[in-house]
Structure formats: C-alpha cells, structure tokens
C-alpha cells in the first residue's frame, strides 16, 4: 500500500472513529437523562456538594426499590426528622468535635451500662450523640430519654426486619426457610453458599450497620455536613472517662505519626486485649470497638458498596475485613493508644462468626475497673508508633460464613447506598 493511501485511509478511519465516539456519547447522555428522570438507573453518578466526588456504579439494573413501609416504619422515619434533644443545654458544639454514633438493638441492661459510662466521659458535652436503633423498643427509648449530658439525636432504622412481622425485610408468607429447595417447595428466596435461606434476625445487623453508615454520613441533616471524625460504638461497649480526650489526641496525631492509618481506635483489634501498657502508640488492623474515621474514608468505603452488599457474609465487620478493606489496595491500619479506652463487655454476642444467635439473658453486674489512669488523657505526643504487620484474622480470600445469599438482601443493601444520593429517599432526613 502506498504511503499516501495509508494516510487517507487513516484519516477516514479517524473521522469514522470520531463519529462513533460522538454518537455513542450522545446515546449515553440521552440514556442517562432518561434514566435519571425515571429515577431508576443503571449508572448512578453523583457528586456531593462537599468533599470528594463519589461515583458509584451499580453494575446491573440495581434500581432504588425500597420495600413498602408500614405504619410503624413510616412513623419512625418521621421521628428521625425531629431535632436533636438538649439543644437548650448545649446550644453550640466546638467546630472540631468528634460526633459519636451508638448503634443498638434490644439489650436494655447493656445500654444502661454504656450510657452510664458515657455520662462520665470528659468532654462529652462538647459533642452530639446519635443513637441508631435497630427495631423499636420502649425500654431502650426510655434509657435514651434520660440523657442530659450532651446533645442526643435518636434515629430508627425504618427498614429493620424487626419492624416487618409479615413482609420483607421481615419474613413474607411463601419465603423459603432453612434448607428448603425453592423449586421443590415453590418458595421464595436464594440460599446462601451453604444452602441456608435468609433469616431476618441474622441479616438485620448488617443491614442496620450499612443503613446507619449511609444515613449519618450522607442523609442526616445534623451530620451530613460534618467535616471531622465520627466515632462508632455499640450497646455493649463500656467507654472510659478519658476516651474522648484520648481520641482527640489520636485524631490529631494520625496524619503526623501514621499517615497510612485510615482510622483511630479506642481499643485493640483483639477484643480480649486491654492493650500493651507500654509507652508507644500502636498501628494495627482496624478493630470493631470504638473505631473512628472521617468522610474521606467513608467515601472509600461507600465506593465498595458492591463488595459490601454482595458478599455472602452476614457480619458487617467480617465483610469489611474480607472484602472492603482488602479492595483498598493497601493495608488498612488504625492508630490507637497502648491502653484501652473502651471495652466490650457483652456476653450475648450479636455477631462474630458462628455464635449462637438466640435470645441471651445476661443479668450479671458489669464491673469494669476504672483506674485513675483511665480518667485522664494517657497518650503522649512524643511516643513512637509500633506497627503490627501481618496480623492474623479475617482477610481477603475468606469465603464468608454465609447467611447473606438472598438477592432481596443484596438489593436492599445497594438501595441504602444510593437512597440519599438519588435524592429519592422516603425515609431520609433530607429535608432542610
Ligand atoms: C481523613 O483521614 C484520612 C486517613 O487518615 C486522610 O488521609 C485524609 O486526609 C483525611 N481527610 C481529611 C479531610 O482530613
């Protein structure tokens, strides 16, 4: 072929290429426009008014298809819009306060202990406490009603399986149970990798955790603009008086002492350990007691909605360790002090591997010793950081304990990730 011909051919090819690109672009634009106006979308592209742009791409037609709500769940969603309480006592919060989110189910005897411990935390009046409830329980509410030591905002998970006695996310008539064969039994459901069908009690924790994360970072009026860190605790975590001040120090030291740390923790990742008690900070794998991170980290987590929602594992924390964190591309370390500022005291597990998940009554007195050293900040600026590398525990490659095989749970979970970003959220607190 003569050289000039080749050029001509190339030119033509290039023009054809441009044409194809243009037409495709136009097509995609129109498609997006149509999808958007239908508010059902294959591709959800959103940008927050603040911070990083977050592009969440849901692969196959995951549209926002939230379950039909009932009277109770609608009234709770409305209650979520109520202003925080104790605004008269604590009208202004310092700009750099660390919001505290406490997520609870139904263990009032535990909740009393947590709230009592929080009341003794130095600096607690400087922050907002958000209490997120999985289910509706009067006894839990009355404990929260008694709080006078800081601003409190109560929110209720309106899609809690506990609120739906005879429809999804609870059990619907016709749902498969245990190891039913859907084709033989003509029942609804997809078994998990071990052949078991969904159980609302088991899936509720992971759903609640994910709904709560999306709600506090992207939905709730009181917190969705929060630029600092948020601390997450559970109803069976005892918090020491120095927890808040220690956390402020850790958050300040994090960029200086451990730039590769994603979070700060109030306790070691090994829940049985109370710390080394040495004169050093520790960087180790993310723990699940008193973990604290900022919006940048949340955006990273949120981008992994598919990993979180589609992995066949009913524990939120194991899901994070086995799929979400490994997908970040570098080890996810958390910074902490050498002495716990929070401990897990619950005997009745709500998660963790294959624990029994039936009702658990635990009426023993919780006596956690609080020493003088736990009442004052006990982290020193000048300490170096000990990095724990290659720690044992759940990690990439773990297949999951199951319990999360039903497509309806996957879809609901993905819907939580997009409900505030699509601006179509019946249960959100988006109103201003
Ligand atoms: C949030 O924390 C991460 C991890 O520690 C850090 O890289 C990032 O700069 C922080 N973002 C802001 C806005 O401070």
UniProtKB/TrEMBL annotation:
<feature type="disulfide bond">
    <location>
        <begin position="258"/>
        <end position="261"/>
    </location>
</feature>
<keyword id="KW-0464">Manganese</keyword>
<dbReference type="GO" id="GO:0009312">
    <property type="term" value="P:oligosaccharide biosynthetic process"/>
</dbReference>
<keyword id="KW-0328">Glycosyltransferase</keyword>
<keyword id="KW-0333">Golgi apparatus</keyword>
<feature type="binding site">
    <location>
        <position position="344"/>
    </location>
    <ligand>
        <name>Mn(2+)</name>
    </ligand>
</feature>
<dbReference type="GO" id="GO:0006487">
    <property type="term" value="P:protein N-linked glycosylation"/>
</dbReference>
<keyword id="KW-0325">Glycoprotein</keyword>
<keyword id="KW-0812">Transmembrane</keyword>
<comment type="pathway">
    <text>Protein modification; protein glycosylation.</text>
</comment>
<feature type="transmembrane region" description="Helical">
    <location>
        <begin position="16"/>
        <end position="35"/>
    </location>
</feature>
<dbReference type="GO" id="GO:0046872">
    <property type="term" value="F:metal ion binding"/>
</dbReference>
<comment type="similarity">
    <text>Belongs to the glycosyltransferase 16 (GT16) protein family.</text>
</comment>
<protein>
    <recommendedName>
        <fullName>Alpha-1,6-mannosyl-glycoprotein 2-beta-N-acetylglucosaminyltransferase</fullName>
        <ecNumber>2.4.1.143</ecNumber>
    </recommendedName>
</protein>
<dbReference type="InterPro" id="IPR029044">
    <property type="entry name" value="Nucleotide-diphossugar_trans"/>
</dbReference>
<dbReference type="GO" id="GO:0005795">
    <property type="term" value="C:Golgi stack"/>
</dbReference>
<keyword id="KW-0472">Membrane</keyword>
<feature type="disulfide bond">
    <location>
        <begin position="176"/>
        <end position="187"/>
    </location>
</feature>
<keyword id="KW-0808">Transferase</keyword>
<dbReference type="GO" id="GO:0008455">
    <property type="term" value="F:alpha-1,6-mannosylglycoprotein 2-beta-N-acetylglucosaminyltransferase activity"/>
</dbReference>
<feature type="disulfide bond">
    <location>
        <begin position="309"/>
        <end position="413"/>
    </location>
</feature>
<keyword id="KW-1015">Disulfide bond</keyword>
<dbReference type="InterPro" id="IPR007754">
    <property type="entry name" value="GlcNAc_II"/>
</dbReference>
<feature type="binding site">
    <location>
        <position position="236"/>
    </location>
    <ligand>
        <name>Mn(2+)</name>
    </ligand>
</feature>
<keyword id="KW-1133">Transmembrane helix</keyword>
<dbReference type="GO" id="GO:0000139">
    <property type="term" value="C:Golgi membrane"/>
</dbReference>
<dbReference type="Pfam" id="PF05060">
    <property type="entry name" value="MGAT2"/>
</dbReference>
<keyword id="KW-0735">Signal-anchor</keyword>
<keyword id="KW-0479">Metal-binding</keyword>
<feature type="binding site">
    <location>
        <position position="134"/>
    </location>
    <ligand>
        <name>substrate</name>
    </ligand>
</feature>
């Amino acid at each position: 072929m003569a050289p000039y011909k080749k050029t001509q051919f190339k030119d033509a090819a290039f023009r054809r290429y441009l044409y194809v690109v243009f037409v495709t672009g136009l097509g995609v634009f129109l498609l997006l426009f149509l999808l958007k106006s239908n508010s059902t979308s294959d591709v959800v592209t959103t940008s927050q008014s603040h911070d990083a742009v977050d592009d969440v791409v849901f692969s196959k037609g995951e549209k926002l298809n939230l379950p039909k709500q009932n009277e109770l769940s609608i009234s709770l969603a409305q209650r979520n819009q109520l202003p925080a309480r104790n605004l008269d006592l604590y009208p202004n919060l310092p700009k750099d306060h660390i919001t505290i989110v406490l997520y609870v189910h139904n263990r009032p005897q535990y909740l009393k202990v947590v709230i009592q411990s929080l009341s003794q935390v130095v600096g607690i009046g400087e922050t907002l406490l958000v209490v997120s409830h999985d289910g509706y329980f009067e006894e839990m509410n009355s404990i929260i009603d008694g709080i006078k030591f800081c601003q409190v905002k109560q929110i209720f998970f309106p899609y809690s399986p506990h609120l739906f006695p005879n429809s999804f996310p609870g059990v619907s008539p016709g749902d498969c149970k245990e190891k039913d064969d859907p084709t033989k039994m003509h029942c609804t459901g997809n078994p998990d990798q071990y052949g078991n069908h969904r159980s609302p009690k088991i899936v509720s924790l992971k759903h609640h955790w994910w709904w709560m994360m999306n709600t506090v970072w992207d939905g709730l009026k009181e917190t969705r603009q929060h630029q600092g860190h948020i601390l997450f605790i559970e109803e069976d975590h005892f918090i020491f008086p120095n927890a808040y001040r220690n956390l402020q120090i850790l958050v300040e030291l994090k960029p200086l002492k451990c730039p590769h740390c994603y979070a700060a923790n109030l306790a070691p990742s090994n829940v049985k350990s109370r710390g080394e008690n040495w004169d050093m900070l520790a960087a180790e794998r993310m723990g699940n007691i008193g973990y604290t991170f900022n919006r940048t980290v949340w955006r990273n987590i949120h981008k992994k909605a598919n990993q979180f929602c589609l992995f066949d594992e009913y524990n939120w924390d194991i899901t994070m360790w086995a799929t979400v964190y490994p997908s970040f591309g570098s080890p996810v370390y958390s910074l902490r002090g050498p002495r716990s500022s929070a401990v897990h005291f619950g005997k009745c597990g709500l998660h963790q591997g294959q624990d029994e998940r039936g009702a658990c009554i635990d009426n023993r007195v919780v006596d956690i010793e609080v020493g003088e050293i736990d009442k004052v900040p006990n982290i020193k600026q000048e300490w170096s950081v000990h990095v724990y590398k290659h720690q044992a525990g759940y990690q990439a490659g773990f297949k999951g304990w199951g319990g999360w095989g039903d497509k309806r749970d996957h879809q609901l979970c993905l819907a939580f990730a997009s409900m505030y970003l699509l601006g179509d959220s019946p249960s959100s607190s988006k109103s201003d």
